[in-house]
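job 3f2a | input accepted
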Amino acid sequence: MIGEDEADSYDGPLITAPRPAEADYLDGLPVPKRYWAMLSISLTVYVAVVEVIGTNVALPTIARSLGATPAASIWIVNAYQLAVVTTLLPFSALGDIVGYRRVYQAGIATLAIASLFSALSHSLISLAVARFIQGLGVSGVLSVNIALVRTIFPSSMLGRGVGINAMISAVSTFLAPMVATGILSVASWHWFFAVNIPVEIFALVITMFALPNPTGSGRPFEYKSALLSALTFGILLSSASAFGHGVSARTGAIGVAAAICAGVVLVRRELSQPAPLLAVDLLHKPLFALSMATSVFSYTAQMLAYVSLPFYLQNVLGRSQIERGFLFSAWPLGAMAADLIAGYMVERCSSKLLGVFGMATLSVGLLSLVLLPTRAATVSIVWRIALCGVGFGFFQTPNNRDIMSSAPKERSGAANGMLGTSRLTGQTLGAASVALIFHRFSGATNAGSLAVGACFAFGAVILRYVLSRSE
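job 3f2a | predicted structure (471 res):
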């Protein structure tokens, strides 16, 4: 770089080289730095997934140890979910403002501290508070992790990066119950949280030398929008969950109405913002809007299957707990293989058609489970569940890639936040739908939830087909 005072005495050409961070941001990271960066992303995704699923597995043990009732122990899960739901969009917007690496590092540090507090907790209240802080940490990580993947990989390899990220999530889903069960078999539940602390610290250390550090926009943070967003999604998703858990229809309707009112105020405010926290500016793009809608449909179908399938295997097909765990593992294994394959295929094939194939496969897989005879062979059950996982994997990777690639790079955080919000919305709607179906129609012994999940998957097929025809 040549200073202005020296320019007159310099005969050569003036060259202004971009800073290394800016160059990395524009064209991805070189190898092996790219591998180190993805290792950090993978470790945090693993911890986030394991702590969600593993905590559910360990919940009865934790409740018994703390002397809490099953109903009260649900706060260990609810506190975490509340933190994630209410802060995901604000943290994503913060990533666009101050830089994705800073938000990601703060999320990992918060997660490590919260894991320590969880391991040291000896009461329900202290553990619920620690889990809320854990939710804040996970929200900080997940709000920008795919935005960081976009800076780690060149644009031509974005599908591969998104596929690897999805594959790690599937692998973690497969491992989480075994990790939790293994730890609980040899130690107290406190160690379930403690063993993750070294992993989180190692992931944080990697970020200091491997992750790109693109400069944020530096614009002011919209605190009013963040508060409205937290109220809208927190109340909406809590009310949707309450409908299926014994809360009166009037109370649930009041909650939904309050969330809608807050949402209307939020949208009206965001329409006048140049870079809105709720990315209404990106929803004007058909690719982004339709991909978001199919994401909600797909995660609703997935959660309908995730929650109802264990009951179906037990009450209809007569399988034991160990058998259910073995049979259900076929889903994440199928998704793991499909995510990796789809990550490479999306660079060579139409992402829209891959998405149509994926959701059609999931719909067929769920319907084939509904039609199973009560004395079905184990192999017949396994390949159907695996088919569902394959279908979801072939959809998830190209759809996530479309969402991220359709947004400008400087709005990657906002797109990441919208993607996470669509996932949480779909999962909450799916879980609430299962509870409502079990309550209204012959309890947990029917296959109605799987059939409804197939309908949602088919709805996603239609949306992806419309998207492919709009090109």
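job 3f2a | The first helix runs from residue 20 to 27.
job 3f2a | closed
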